[in-house]
Design goal:
The chain is of the alpha/beta class and 338 residues long. The protein has a seven-stranded parallel sheet with strand order 3-2-1-4-5-6-7. A six-stranded parallel sheet has the order 10-9-8-11-12-13, sandwiched between helices. 36% of the residues lie in helices and 20% in strands. It comes from Halomonas llamarensis.
């Protein structure tokens, strides 16, 4: 008898973690239907497209959820998926309005959340620990959907399974399963022999805080400059795919710092050249966790969000939660400008 599994995917990391879930649970990709929604940002959309083509033909089916005419596509998607009784439904966004609308109209045995970055930690702190309602309320849209006979609320929102690389504890609302990243390790750990003997580099993982107006450009550039200045090694800056050209042009002006161009996830970049890095640093990047798991021999460093007086209240709250977890890692050190 065919098994039916549904996954709603919106980022490369979600897809990477979905592959790992298949391995851990012995699921056949042909039994999974993927609903893929690309970001409106071209760089983010291209990153997901690059990851998707790696095993495009292995999945049971791939449905593209269009950004235009969302109500129309939402109605068509639910109509297409509703007749099936799903064994599992999988996503990386607990609070996504459109995804929860889809799940509210399906029959399924288990809902699984895979990591979509450090947002998992914040969601765990905000919702999972006490079973707080995570379904967004949009009154006007709900009335419209009710006319279309589309349910707007999941009847049984708990329990949920979380498949995560982070050290989370199970409770009555959530069952936590460990993501070992073994698949990513296998595909990433391909060191280049030609790099042996080359002086090791320091790598800073960029974040889109300036473009998102979550931190002032001065404070952010000061931190990156401090990282570059205090290092006697060659320094590289790996931009987040959401950082703008204007921001990166200013980063390029920092002395002793080179901006990296890339198309692959950072885990694969480091894996191909893991012998050439002596330190990897950042602020609250998910890669500070994944790289620690994949390459525990490389020291991980981070700057506390408390270094930034201009940090938005929401960023401060989320980052402090993240810091509580990153401090639990071995071979991980806090940097300071003081």
């Amino acid at each position: 008898m065919s098994r039916h599994h549904l996954a709603l995917i919106t980022s490369p990391l979600q897809l990477i973690n979905l592959r790992q879930l298949c391995v851990e649970r012995g699921l056949y990709k042909k039994d999974l239907i993927l609903v893929v929604k690309f970001s409106k940002k071209s760089s983010s959309a291209q990153a997901l497209q690059n990851e998707l083509i790696l095993d495009y033909g292995d999945w049971g089916d791939i449905i593209i959820f269009e950004n235009k005419n969302k109500f129309f596509y939402l109605q068509c998607l639910i109509k297409k998926l509703r007749p099936t009784k799903w064994e599992t439904v999988i996503s990386g966004e607990l609070t996504s309005w459109w995804q929860n609308i889809v799940f509210a109209n399906l029959r399924f045995e288990e809902r699984i959340i895979v990591d979509d970055g450090t947002m998992t930690l914040f969601d765990y702190h905000e919702f999972f620990e006490k079973g707080v309602d995570y379904q967004k309320k949009k009154f006007g849209k709900s009335i419209f959907l009710s006319f279309l006979r589309i349910r707007t609320k999941i009847k049984k929102p708990w329990p949920i399974t979380v498949f995560s690389l982070f050290p989370l504890a199970s409770n009555e609302y959530v069952k936590c399963e460990k993501n070992s990243l073994s698949v990513l390790k296998t595909t990433s750990d391909k060191p280049c022999e030609c790099l042996v003997g080359i002086p090791k580099k320091h790598l800073f993982l960029g974040q889109p805080f300036v473009d998102n107006k979550e931190i002032s450009d001065k404070e952010y550039f000061d931190i990156v400059s401090h990282f570059s200045f205090q290092s006697k090694n060659e320094c590289w800056y790996l931009p987040h795919r959401s950082e703008s050209k204007e921001t990166l042009d200013k980063i390029k002006e920092i002395k002793n710092l080179k901006v990296m161009t890339y198309t692959q996830p950072v885990e694969k970049i480091v894996g191909q050249q893991k012998n050439s890095y002596s330190q990897i640093a950042g602020i609250n990047s998910t890669a500070l966790f994944t790289l620690h798991i994949l390459y525990p021999e490389i020291p991980i460093c981070f700057y506390s969000i408390r270094e930034f007086s201009s940090a938005s209240k929401l960023l401060l709250q989320r980052s402090l939660v993240i810091e509580d977890f990153i401090k639990q890692q071995e071979n991980t050190f806090q940097l300071s400008c003081e």
